[in-house]
Amino acid sequence: MNAQTERFELRGPAGAIEALRDRPADVSRGVAVIAHPHPLFGGTMDNKVVQTLARAFVQCGWTAVRFNFRGVGATEGAHDEGRGEAQDFLAVVTAAAGEGPLALAGFSFGSFVTCSALQSLWPAREIEKIVLVGTAAARFQVATLPPEAHERTLVVHGEQDDTVALSAVMDWARPQSLPVTVVPGGGHFFHGQLPLLKTLVARHLRS
Fold first, then answer.
1. Using an 8 Å Cβ cutoff, are 142 and 170 in contact?
2. Which of 34, 109, 120, 154 could connect to 204 by a Cys-Cys bridge, CB 3.0–4.6 Å?
3. What CATH number is associated with residue 119?
């Protein structure tokens, strides 16, 4: 993402996990772990939406950690339809976030995995902020969020997302009474609207 981006490796359930870390200029508020889109459709930690999320967190004083799921890049293992990927996510939280303040974020398939990991983490530890973008509610059974987590959660979706229909996300959110922020005219990858996405995320992080 920038010259200060730190590349590192940690151990996960399926072997080595490749990761990147970006730190804010001043003292870090905590660690945000960010999950990327579907590995079988080209998703990696270098995805533009994932990078935008990382930039928003760093801008708001968080250390941003993104990583490649099993079978992607230098991360060992094979795709596991979200089950093993949630274990990868938890391994990154344990290794990179320690016991300090924690935030979680994900894009598309990464949001599905983030919600699965959240169920394991809550209420064992406090999660200050949650950001879910393009949540893959059309293709996966996305876990519901604990009611206590709602005020800490931002759900963003593009109005014209042709990968995950907005209606599918609304069907997931409606029984939870979980608000969804809709970007008018936005597609799945927010082409031309990444600055707006960054602004929405930063506003949530500062609230």
1. no
2. 154
3. 3.40.50.1820
Q: Is residue 1 part of a domain?
A: no
For residue 30, being part of any structural domain is answered with yes
For residues 123-134, b (16+ Cβ closer than 10 Å) or e, as one string?
eeeebebbbbbb
The pTM of the full predicted model, rounded to 2 decimals, is 0.97
176 closest CA partner among 144, 138, 151, 201: 144
pLDDT digit string (tens) for 106-140?
Answer: 999 999 999 999 999 998 999 999 999 999 999 89
Residues with Cβ within 8 Å of 193's Cβ and at least 6 positions away in sequence, in order, are 158, 183, 185, 186
Encoded tokens for 64:
């941003």
Cβ atoms of 37 and 43 within 8 Å: the answer is yes
Two tokens, residue 205 = 């992080």
- Residue 62 and residue 27 in contact, taking contact as beta carbons nearer than 8 Å: no
Rounded to the nearest 10 degrees, the angle between the axes of helix 109-121 and helix 83-92 is: 60
